[in-house]
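To: structure desk
From: M.T.
Subject: fold request, one chain
Message: Could you run this one when you get a chance? Sequence is below, nothing fancy, just the single chain.
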Amino acid sequence: MRTYIVDSFTREPFKGNPAGVCFPETALSEEKMLKIAQEFGLSETAFVQPTAEASVYSIRYFSPKKEIPLCGHATLASARVIFNSSTVNEIHFTTVEKLDLLIKRHNEEITMEFPVYDTTDIDVPPVMLDALGLKEVSNTAFSPRNKIILLEISNAAVLAGLQPDYTALVQSYSGINGVLVTAPSNTADYDYHYRYFWPWAGTQEDPVTGGVQTFLAKYWSVRLQKTQMKAYQSSARTGYMHIDLQTDKVLLTSQAVIVLEGRLAGADA
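Reply: Done. Structure tokens follow.
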């Protein structure tokens, strides 16, 4: 089975978010896909197969813990591999939830079309803030579709310096996939910064997260009164993306770099 590791949301190798990308020749069981994702040990691994329709692929995402319905960086990584080996400039991915993701290539940049979801109000317990190392927050919100808590703070430098206690963080709340902490940018290069912690459903911290823009882009668009923005993930690896929020969709544009290509043995269904 052809396999790749691709660094997404970056122009440089060994930055951004590494994703595994697998192209099974036959359908794999969910159990086998989960085991392969655990073998890679990355935040997500994508499994991509062509369909009967030209330039349309099925895609499924697995963290080392479970299947993930939608993943930005693994989508970007998968598109990078396909575009590198073909002349087409537009493809579609169909997810396990039957989302149709339109992906376009513009020279080295790739634009992904994702859905937009609303947020609701939520009360966050002080023990969660303590686990994250936060003394106060500016606002809280919740994405029911993603099961992610959003915490806005006022200082991007504080955000970059967070060192959560992950054991305490998992114990502070149940029934969610993760918590996202975000802040307005402290430079003119970006509009907002963010980090995503998800020990409930995946790894401890996702280095660069595209899927959260399904609700984070609208959140910041309302606050900043802008529909075109630049987002920066201030994790240790860092990453960036350009945001174009439209009525019912958000366009994410960035780059990705293939760092490893090979064949995975022992991957029969």
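Reply (cont.): The chain has a mean pLDDT of 96. Let me know if you need anything else for the meeting.
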